[in-house]
């Protein structure tokens, strides 16, 4: 074989190797300056979902929401199996399953520009948000409705998952006899002083108030209201919420709230809601009582010096904020961060220029510090 032929052979082999390397599945992904992360926020304790102070925002992108939902379902199934079938879990033959394999695969997918391109995702999602009206801009209202729709899908998914557990006869309905309080309630102190029992979350009165058609059964909509009463339009359920607020704050047990009980029990919740809703400033401590008296007088419609369950209906949405409240909070935050020309709305260009406002991320490990964005 001549020298020229040998050189040509080496060139062919080199080209072939480069081709094979380029097609290899172990190809190093194209890392961004910030790495998208999949949250791990699963909590098997339902009480956490009732704590508005630690409420998790729903992902902006439905694709990421689906990834997180699948991961949460697997964790939920694992925890439920361990809780309900402990004798099997503790058996010697039980094998531990890898917990983070799917988690890491999902993150690798999200951080591979060839498979998940943030700019392309924003281009795809923009016309789905810009619908009221279709004018080439995303307003606070449009973004709020988008966030709310994503949140409602997430909430209903969790409701249907819980319904499968409690619907013992698989008829698509939940009776009170079928429904069992979760383990965190059952295993509480015998005097029933745990969160949940003291507010009546798992009692028959709550169940009956949720049963809008009075047939003794909860369909999926009613069961969703049962688990998430703040988002319900059922007047009986909202009145039940008011009754529970009175029951919890009524220290002298007269069935209504005097000013002291209102001021030390509910006023802070209303004030914090108004501060966040209207971006108003904090008021000084010496002004708080005066403001509380003004509000108390406005709520006390019959002027008897007390607040009844019916009178609390006027502020129940502030005591138990709905998903729409949090959806608007998220929309306000996003627009405040991405609206570069400060016209109160977002163009597609502004969204593309601020992608990490929409996608939670941290810097790569090479960076000296981390960036955390709670809104996704």
Automatic annotation (TrEMBL):
<feature type="domain" description="EF-hand">
    <location>
        <begin position="326"/>
        <end position="361"/>
    </location>
</feature>
<dbReference type="InterPro" id="IPR011992">
    <property type="entry name" value="EF-hand-dom_pair"/>
</dbReference>
<keyword id="KW-0106">Calcium</keyword>
<feature type="signal peptide">
    <location>
        <begin position="1"/>
        <end position="22"/>
    </location>
</feature>
<feature type="domain" description="EF-hand">
    <location>
        <begin position="204"/>
        <end position="233"/>
    </location>
</feature>
<dbReference type="Pfam" id="PF13202">
    <property type="entry name" value="EF-hand_5"/>
</dbReference>
<dbReference type="Pfam" id="PF13833">
    <property type="entry name" value="EF-hand_8"/>
</dbReference>
<protein>
    <submittedName>
        <fullName>Calcium-binding ef hand family protein</fullName>
    </submittedName>
</protein>
<dbReference type="InterPro" id="IPR018247">
    <property type="entry name" value="EF_Hand_1_Ca_BS"/>
</dbReference>
<keyword id="KW-0732">Signal</keyword>
<dbReference type="InterPro" id="IPR002048">
    <property type="entry name" value="EF_hand_dom"/>
</dbReference>
<dbReference type="GO" id="GO:0005783">
    <property type="term" value="C:endoplasmic reticulum"/>
</dbReference>
<dbReference type="Pfam" id="PF13499">
    <property type="entry name" value="EF-hand_7"/>
</dbReference>
<dbReference type="GO" id="GO:0005509">
    <property type="term" value="F:calcium ion binding"/>
</dbReference>
<feature type="domain" description="EF-hand">
    <location>
        <begin position="287"/>
        <end position="322"/>
    </location>
</feature>
């Amino acid at each position: 074989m001549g020298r020229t032929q040998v050189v040509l052979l080496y060139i062919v082999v080199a080209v072939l190797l480069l081709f094979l390397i380029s097609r290899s599945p172990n190809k190093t992904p194209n890392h961004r300056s910030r790495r998208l992360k999949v949250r791990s926020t699963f909590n098997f304790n339902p009480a956490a979902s009732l704590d508005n102070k630690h409420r998790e925002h729903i992902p902006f992108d439905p694709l990421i929401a689906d990834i997180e939902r699948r991961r949460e379902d697997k964790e939920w199934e694992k925890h439920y199996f361990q809780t309900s079938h402990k004798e099997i879990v503790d058996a010697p033959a039980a094998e531990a399953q890898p917990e983070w394999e799917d988690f890491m695969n999902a993150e690798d997918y999200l951080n591979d520009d060839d498979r998940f391109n943030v700019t392309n995702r924003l281009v795809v999602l923009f016309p789905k948000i810009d619908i009221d009206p279709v004018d080439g801009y995303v307003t606070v209202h449009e973004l709020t409705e988008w966030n709310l729709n994503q949140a409602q899908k997430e909430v209903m998914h969790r409701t249907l998952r819980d319904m499968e557990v409690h619907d013992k006869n698989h008829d698509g309905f939940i009776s009170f006899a079928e429904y069992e309080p979760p383990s965190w309630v059952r295993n509480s102190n015998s005097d029933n002083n745990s969160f949940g029992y003291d507010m009546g979350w798992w009692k028959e009165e709550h169940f009956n108030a949720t049963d809008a058609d009075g047939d003794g059964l909860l369909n999926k909509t009613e069961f969703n209201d049962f688990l998430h009463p703040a988002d319900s339009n059922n007047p009986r359920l909202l009145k039940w919420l008011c009754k529970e607020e009175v029951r919890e704050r009524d220290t002298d047990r007269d069935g209504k709230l005097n000013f002291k009980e209102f001021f030390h029990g509910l006023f802070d919740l209303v004030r914090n809601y108004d501060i966040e809703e209207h971006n108003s400033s904090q008021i000084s401590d010496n002004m708080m009582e005066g403001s509380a008296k003004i509000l108390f007088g406005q709520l006390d419609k019959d002027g008897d010096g007390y607040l009844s369950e019916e009178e609390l209906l006027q502020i129940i949405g502030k005591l138990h904020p709905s998903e729409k409240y949090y959806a608007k909070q998220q929309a306000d935050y996003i627009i405040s961060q991405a609206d570069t020309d400060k016209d109160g709305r977002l163009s597609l260009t502004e969204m593309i220029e601020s992608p990490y406002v929409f996608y939670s991320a941290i810097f790569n490990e090479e960076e000296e510090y981390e960036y955390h964005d709670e809104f996704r």
